[in-house]
């Protein structure tokens, strides 16, 4: 594992964001970054000493107040007031990993030397990350334009020794106390520093990077779930043949179909109905078209990763300090590129879940399950089997369809019409995170149901890969039997999806899935 992540003028990789946000790997500013920051700070200091010309963010107010000139003796108060007034979030507390991601991404922009922030200010932000001090941020407050203003303002507030934070152990405390405990000194913000600390799309980008990583793994689980269901329902694997997939050469489709072939290889259940007596030549779409849907989701994810890569190379601040010494206003803080990508991912996520739900329903319906007992019940009539697990799954899928409605098509003008079009990218990120959690639960219920169905096909045995998944699940979840409290079984399966144990079980047979 990487012992630290270097933050400098070079772009961060998605793996760097995940390491710092989720594994709390320390960060270190490079000497090149410190030099770049010192150089750009000299430019800002020169502007601050120019009493004849107003410069946005240095000697003026902000937003609709940009035409208000601020004299030199009030500019420290200007920065403090900016942060205090903008730290206005509300609602449920944002997850620690999201806050750490936005802190890291803001640090990288500061380290670029294009913002005019002093090295000591950036070093304090790095020190907060390394000390495990995480500002408390409410989930409402960002419109995704002029950056994630409210969320980042709570971070800047903590640098000033104000506001509330959580320490490494999750204990809530005043920022001043946390800084003191970590032997850190609050910063007094200089000209432009307040603006530079908050004028970025870092929160929504952090959520995009983490969601993309989660979805990449969940799409492999979707293939596993689909393979188990095809097998349990006595479907055919002939439709997943490589030459059939090549007729429509989408790379994601090819990858999903290759996974399905690997997962179903060597199945005695599949072999049991390959003979001339089998009259079922076409399965339902939820079985036959699984690679087309999961594959399109992969192709969408590839596009989103391209957007994320561009954003990780971007420097978002307004105004920006250019290499030739100019300080220019710009619109790079607008979150549209990230907002669209966040919204885009929510669509295939919902559709993959919807197809999973259809397969689950088919396994529970006696008329369509090819010989399985109704609802996979132990004693039909007395037991209800997985009837209500399907209800739970359907409820989640319905919500995922609502969450697929884009946030980025909405805009509410703010700041006295100065900020008259906003991206709502933060909202897109928040709903995508909820969607990821929902898809994880939907796939878990399909896998839980398919594993039960495969057990009920005994003495026929599943493929080695799907059998390994069932065996891994059986280490925490019992097999078929009379009705029992079902919520713990669902939760244990969700945990096995999330911790990677089911994927590892499949890949122990197939090798790495695509």
From TrEMBL:
Catalysed reaction(s) here are: L-histidine = trans-urocanate + NH4(+)
Named in its record, the pathway it takes part in is: Amino-acid degradation; L-histidine degradation into L-glutamate; N-formimidoyl-L-glutamate from L-histidine: step 1/3
Report TM segments: none
Keyword line:
Histidine metabolism, Lyase
Kind of enzyme, top EC level?
Answer: lyase
Identify the Pfam families for this entry: Lyase_aromatic
Could you tell me the EC number(s) of this protein? 4.3.1.3
> Is Membrane one of the keywords?
no
Gene3D superfamilies given in the database record: Fumarase/aspartase (Central domain), Fumarase/aspartase (N-terminal domain)
**Where is the protein localized?**
Cytoplasm
Primary residence: cytoplasm
Similarity field = Belongs to the PAL/histidase family.
Q: Could you tell me what this protein is called? A: Histidine ammonia-lyase
């Amino acid at each position: 594992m990487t012992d630290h992540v270097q933050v400098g003028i070079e772009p961060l990789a998605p793996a760097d964001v995940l390491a710092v946000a989720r594994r709390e790997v320390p960060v270190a500013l490079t000497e090149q970054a410190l030099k770049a920051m010192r150089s750009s700070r000299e430019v800002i200091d020169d502007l601050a000493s120019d009493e004849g010309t107003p410069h946005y963010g240095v000697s003026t107010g902000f937003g609709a107040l940009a035409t208000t000139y601020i004299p030199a003796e009030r500019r420290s108060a200007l920065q403090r007031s900016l942060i205090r007034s903008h730290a206005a979030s509300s609602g449920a507390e944002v997850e620690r990993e999201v806050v750490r991601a936005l802190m890291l991404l803001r640090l990288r922009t500061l380290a670029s030397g294009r913002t005019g922030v002093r090295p000591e200010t950036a070093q304090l932000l790095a020190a907060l990350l390394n000390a495990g001090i995480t500002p408390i941020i409410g989930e409402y407050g960002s419109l995704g334009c002029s950056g994630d203003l409210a969320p980042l303002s709570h971070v800047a507030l903590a640098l000033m020794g104000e506001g509330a934070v959580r320490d490494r152990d999750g204990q809530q405390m005043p920022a001043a106390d946390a800084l003191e405990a970590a032997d850190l000194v609050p910063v007094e913000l200089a000209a432009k520093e307040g603006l530079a600390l908050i004028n970025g799309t870092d929160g929504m980008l952090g959520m995009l990077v983490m969601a993309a990583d989660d979805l990449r793994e969940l799409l492999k689980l979707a293939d596993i779930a689909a393979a188990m269901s095809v097998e349990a329902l006595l479907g055919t694997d002939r439709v997943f043949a490589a030459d059939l997939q090549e007729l429509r050469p989408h790379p994601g489709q090819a990858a999903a179909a290759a996974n399905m072939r690997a997962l179903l290889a060597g199945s005695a259940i599949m072999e049991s109905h390959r003979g001339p007596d089998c009259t079922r030549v076409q399965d339902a779409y939820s079985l036959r078209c699984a690679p087309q849907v999961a594959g399109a989701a992969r192709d969408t994810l590839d596009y989103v990763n391209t957007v994320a890569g561009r954003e990780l190379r971007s420097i978002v601040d307004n105004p920006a300090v250019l290499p030739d010494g100019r300080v220019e206003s710009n619109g790079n803080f607008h979150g549209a590129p990230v907002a669209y990508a966040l919204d885009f991912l929510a669509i295939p996520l919902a559709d993959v879940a919807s197809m999973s739900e259809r397969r689950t329903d088919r396994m529970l319906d006696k008329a369509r399950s090819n010989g399985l007992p109704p609802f996979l019940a132990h004693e039909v009539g007395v037991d209800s089997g997985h009837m209500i697990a399907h209800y739970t799954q359907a409820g989640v899928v319905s919500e995922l369809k609502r969450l697929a409605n884009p946030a980025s098509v909405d805009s509410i003008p703010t700041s006295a019409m100065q900020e008259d079009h906003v991206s709502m990218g933060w909202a897109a990120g928040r709903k995508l995170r909820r969607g990821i959690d929902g898809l994880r639960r939907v796939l878990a219920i399909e896998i839980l149901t398919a594993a039960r169905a495969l057990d009920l096909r005994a003495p026929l045995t599943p493929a080695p890969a799907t059998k390994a998944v069932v065996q891994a699940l059986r280490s925490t979840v019992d097999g078929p039997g009379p009705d029992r409290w079902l919520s713990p079984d669902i939760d244990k399966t969700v945990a096995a999806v999330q911790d990677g144990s089911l994927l590892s079980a499949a890949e122990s047979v197939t090798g790495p899935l695509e």
